[in-house]
Write a structure and sequence with these properties.
It is a single chain. With 327 residues, this protein is an all-alpha fold. The protein has one domain: Orthogonal Bundle (ABC transporter involved in vitamin B12 uptake, BtuC), CATH 1.10.3470.10.
Length: 327
């Protein structure tokens, strides 16, 4: 019963934030939001349905993907500090995105752009996993080192590219939903959906995997297969997100800690909850980024850092992380 109420509350919060995202912005609506339903002519209708609606829908998809990716990252590496940025996924996706745009092989928001980001994200994560000397700080240090190398290469590509406008790709450092439109959301949504499905499948194996590799092996779940599937799922979640909106700090690290506080460590429950929490937090952050200092828009990554860092400290003080799942 408690779980049902939790879902209902999250759906209500998400719906209210979504409506607020359509209603509030630099351009003030002269008519009510409800009167614009079914209309596509006029400034208000264009503002809501062609600009704000794709951005709000994209925020839900991106937030859900980042939330699930954070939960999977910490589960598969059994480390409370693991997140997509620290295991090379984000930097790999960034390099894949910039490489195809700078070379002229694909345009921003294209299917090829997203596919390149997914491939590079997966390669980066597998590289970190294979090179890590241990599961503890060795894994984290390896992830930071690989990420730094990939980001440096991406910066070099931006610097030497002769294509006009490539230098503006530096916005990926802080993340932004400003370039999201209906076409971009349409391109990234199917890839994220594949990531969601794979994450749900892997989550059933992670509860056994969290008991230790030996225990998982004796219970009939191959640790190696679980890791491979998890990294592929992470690539499908992070690749499309980074290719469309850049790097959004702290969300992937914060969401799993909130979820464990609400429902405990069982991964079968945490994936769906992580999707809701991630979507809610990103919608809220984007709303603040657009409205706090109008007409200026604050980089989204700055908002998530300012909100995420203090909240993470509070959560860690309230309750220690739990890593073994219990039914």
């Amino acid at each position: 019963m408690r779980k049902i109420w939790l879902y209902l509350v999250m759906v209500l919060i998400l719906l209210l934030l979504f409506i607020a995202s359509l209603q509030i912005g630099i351009v003030h609506l002269h008519t009510s939001l409800w009167s614009l339903i079914g209309k596509h002519d006029g400034i208000d209708a264009t503002t809501v349905w062609e600009i704000r609606f794709p951005r709000a829908l994209g925020a839900v998809i991106v937030g859900a993907a980042l939330g699930i990716a954070g939960s999977l990252s910490q589960g598969i590496f059994r480390n409370p500090l693991a997140e997509p940025a620290l295991i090379g996924l984000t930097s790999g996706a960034t390099l894949g995105t910039i490489a195809v745009i700078a070379s002229g092989a694909a345009a921003f928001g294209s299917r090829t752009n997203v596919e390149s980001a997914i491939i590079f994200a997966a390669l980066a994560a597998f590289t970190v996993y294979w090179l890590s000397p241990s599961k503890g700080f060795g894994f984290l240090i390896t992830g930071i080192a690989v990420s730094s190398i990939l980001i440096a290469i991406a910066g070099l590509l931006i610097s030497i590219s002769a294509k006009p406008g490539v230098q503006s790709l530096s916005f990926w450092n802080f993340g932004s939903l400003s370039l999201l439109n209906a076409q971009t959301v349409k391109v990234i949504a199917p890839f994220c959906e594949i990531g969601f499905i794979l994450a749900l499948y892997v989550s059933r194996r992670l509860d056994i995997y969290s008991l230790g590799e030996s225990s998982a092996h004796y219970l009939g779940k191959s640790p190696r297969k679980t890791r491979v599937l998890a990294i592929i799922a992470l690539a499908f979640l992070i690749g499309p997100v980074v290719s469309a909106v850049g790097t959004i700090a702290f969300l992937g690290l914060l969401v799993p800690h909130i979820v464990r506080l609400l429902v405990g460590p069982a991964h079968r429950r945490s994936v769906s909850i992580s999707a809701f929490i991630g979507a809610i937090l990103l919608l809220l952050a984007d709303l603040l980024a657009r409205t706090l200092f109008q007409p200026h828009e604050i980089p989204l990554g700055l908002i998530t850092s300012l909100l995420g860092a203090p909240l993470l400290i509070i959560l860690l003080r309230m309750k220690g992380s739990q890593w073994v799942a219990h039914d």
